[in-house]
Design brief:
Keywords: NAD, Oxidoreductase. By secondary structure, the protein is of the alpha/beta class. It contains 18 helices and 20 strands. It is globular and about 85 Å long.
Length: 490
C-alpha cells in the first residue's frame, strides 16, 4: 500500500485529539514561564536566520516573489517583530498597578496579563511566511499553546513551515496542520481560546460563525478597497513612486493594504496618469510581463477573477496603460484605468491584483464622500501638502490605518496597531498589540482583614444608605462628612 494511503486523514476526531493534547500541555503551566516564551522566540529567530534562502526560494516557487520582496517584506519584518518581542517581553508581562478608590479602602489593585490558552492561527497565501508567523510571535509571547494552519494556496511555503517549526520549536506546545478546506473545517469545529484569521471577508464570516458556537473571540485580518487620494500641490514624482511601491512592489498588488484605487481631480488626472506610466516603465521596462521584479498571479482561479474584472464591457475601454496578460505564466502587466464606472465589478470588490482604477472628482474634498460611501477599508492614503486637507482626512475617513504622503509603511511601525474596522477586520496586532491580542487582562484586587466596616452588612439603616450612596458615587470629603452627620438627602 502506498505511503499516501497509509497517511491518516486529519478529521474532526484528529483535531479534537490535537486540541486535547495541547490543553493538557498548557495545563502544566509550561508555556506560562518567561523562560519558555523567550526560548521559543529565540528559536523562531534562529529558524529564520538559518533558512533565509530556503524561505525565499519557497516564496519564489509559490508566487515568483522577487528576492528583495521576500527578504525585506517577509523575512526581515518577521525578524523585526521577533526582536521587538524579545526586547519588550518582560515589560509586557509585568502586571500594571492601578489606583483604587475609597470604596475599597484599604486596598491595592493591578491588571495581570495571562495567556488565553490554546489558540488557532489560520494564515493567508499572499505573504505566507510573514502572515503565518507574525501572529504566532504574539501567541507565544503571551504564553499560549498554538496551532498554525498555513494556506494550502502557497503549498511550498506551507510544507517548509511545517518542517521548520517541527525542527526548531517545542512541538508539545506549537503545532502545524497542513491541508485545505477539510482540515480547516475540522479545526474550526473545535473549541479554541482564540482564533486569528488572515484572509478575505467571505471566509472571515465562516470563521466567525464557527467561533460563535463556542463563544470564542476572534481576530479577523481582512482587507477592502484601500483608496489613495491625490491632491495637486505635491511632489508628483515622489508621490507616484510611493503609490507604485505600495501597489506593484508589494506582491504585484496581491496585498491587503495595497492601494486599490486612486481618487484625484479631473484637472490633475492627466498629469498623474503620465507620471504613473513613466515610473512604471522605469520600474519594469517596456515589457513588464518579462520583468523578474514582479510577482505572478498566485493561481489560475485568481487570474480568471482578475481577467473578468478587466474584460467587463464598461471597463475594458477605460484602460490607459497596460492590460497585457499571459495566462500560461499567470502574469498580468501593471494596468491603469481612468474614470471606470462606480457600479462596475472592479469598483465593487477588492481587486487584490495589479489593476489600478482612477476615479475623478471636481474638487479633491469630494473624495472623502466617495470613500465613505463604501465599506470601511483596511488602509487609506492621502498625498497632499494642505494642512487642512490632512486634518479633514484623518477626522472624516474611517479605516483600519491611515498614511499621509506614503503607502503601506505603517505596517512596519510596531507601536501602531495593525487591523481593520467594520468589514475590513476585527481586532489588531503588531508589537505589544500582538501580545494583547492573545492575552486576557485579569483584574486583581488585594485587601487585608483590617478596615472592615459594617456599612454594607445588615441591618440596613438610612444612615448606611446615605453614606454608601455618597461613597459609591465617588463623593468628595465634604459629601462624606455631610452623610456621616445626616445632612445629605437620600
Amino acid at each position: 500500500m502506498a505511503s499516501e494511503e497509509l497517511k491518516k486523514v486529519f478529521d474532526a476526531e484528529e483535531a479534537s485529539l490535537l486540541v486535547k493534547e495541547l490543553r493538557d500541555t498548557f495545563a502544566t503551566g509550561r508555556t506560562r514561564s518567561y523562560e519558555w516564551r523567550i526560548s521559543q522566540l529565540k528559536a523562531l529567530l534562529k529558524l529564520t536566520d538559518n533558512h533565509e534562502q530556503e524561505i525565499a526560494d519557497a516564496l519564489n516557487s509559490d508566487l515568483c516573489k522577487p528576492q528583495l520582496e521576500s527578504v525585506v517584506y517577509e523575512i526581515a519584518m518577521l525578524k523585526s517583530s521577533c526582536k521587538a518581542a524579545l526586547k519588550e517581553l518582560k515589560h509586557w508581562m509585568t502586571p500594571e498597578k492601578v489606583k483604587t478608590s475609597i470604596t475599597t479602602f484599604p486596598s491595592s489593585a493591578e491588571i495581570v496579563p495571562e495567556p488565553l490558552g490554546v489558540v488557532l492561527v489560520i494564515s493567508a497565501w499572499n505573504y505566507p511566511f510573514l502572515l503565518s508567523l507574525d501572529p504566532v510571535i504574539g501567541a507565544i509571547a503571551a504564553g499560549n499553546a498554538v496551532v498554525l494552519k498555513p494556506s494550502e494556496i502557497a503549498p511550498v511555503t506551507s510544507s517548509l513551515l511545517e518542517k521548520l517549526l517541527r525542527d526548531y520549536m517545542d512541538c508539545s506546545c506549537i503545532k502545524v496542520v497542513e491541508g485545505a478546506v477539510a482540515e480547516t473545517s475540522a479545526l474550526l469545529e473545535q473549541k479554541w481560546d482564540k482564533i486569528f484569521y488572515t484572509g478575505n471577508g467571505r471566509v472571515g464570516r465562516i470563521v466567525m460563525a464557527a467561533a460563535a458556537k463556542h463563544l470564542t473571540p476572534v481576530v479577523l485580518e481582512l482587507g477592502g478597497k484601500s483608496p489613495v487620494v491625490v491632491d495637486s500641490d505635491i511632489n508628483l514624482q515622489v508621490a507616484t513612486r510611493r503609490i507604485l511601491a505600495g501597489k506593484w512592489c508589494f506582491n504585484n498588488g496581491q496585498a491587503c493594504i495595497a492601494p486599490d484605487y486612486i481618487i484625484t481631480t479631473k484637472d490633475y488626472a492627466p498629469k498623474l496618469v503620465d507620471a504613473l506610466k513613466n515610473e512604471l516603465e522605469n520600474f519594469y521596462g517596456k515589457n513588464p510581463l518579462e520583468s523578474k521584479d514582479l510577482s505572478r498571479i498566485v493561481n489560475s482561479n485568481h487570474f480568471a477573477r482578475l481577467t473578468k474584472l478587466l474584460d467587463e464591457d464598461k471597463v475594458s475601454g477605460k484602460i490607459v496603460h497596460g492590460g497585457e496578460k499571459d495566462e500560461s505564466k499567470l502574469r498580468i502587466a501593471p494596468t491603469i484605468l481612468l474614470d471606470v464606472p462606480r457600479d462596475s465589478l472592479i469598483m465593487n470588490e477588492e481587486i487584490f491584483g495589479p489593476l489600478l482604477p482612477i476615479l475623478t472628482v471636481d474638487k479633491v474634498e469630494e473624495s472623502f464622500d466617495v470613500i465613505n460611501s463604501g465599506a470601511k477599508p483596511l488602509a487609506a492614503y492621502v498625498f497632499t501638502n494642505n494642512k487642512k486637507l490632512k486634518e479633514r482626512f484623518v477626522m472624516s475617513v474611517s479605516a483600519g490605518g491611515l498614511v499621509v504622503n506614503d503607502t503601506n509603511i505603517h505596517l512596519a511601525v510596531h507601536t501602531l496597531p495593525f487591523g481593520g474596522v467594520g468589514e475590513s477586520g476585527v481586532g489588531a496586532y503588531h508589537g505589544k498589540f500582538s501580545f494583547d491580542a492573545f492575552s486576557h487582562k485579569k483584574a486583581v484586587l488585594y485587601r487585608s482583614f483590617v478596615g472592615d466596616a459594617s456599612l454594607r452588612y445588615p441591618p440596613y439603616t438610612n444612615g448606611k444608605l446615605k453614606l454608601l450612596k455618597v461613597l459609591m458615587q465617588g463623593g468628595g470629603l465634604l459629601a462624606i462628612i455631610r452623610a456621616l452627620f445626616g445632612w445629605s438627602k437620600v
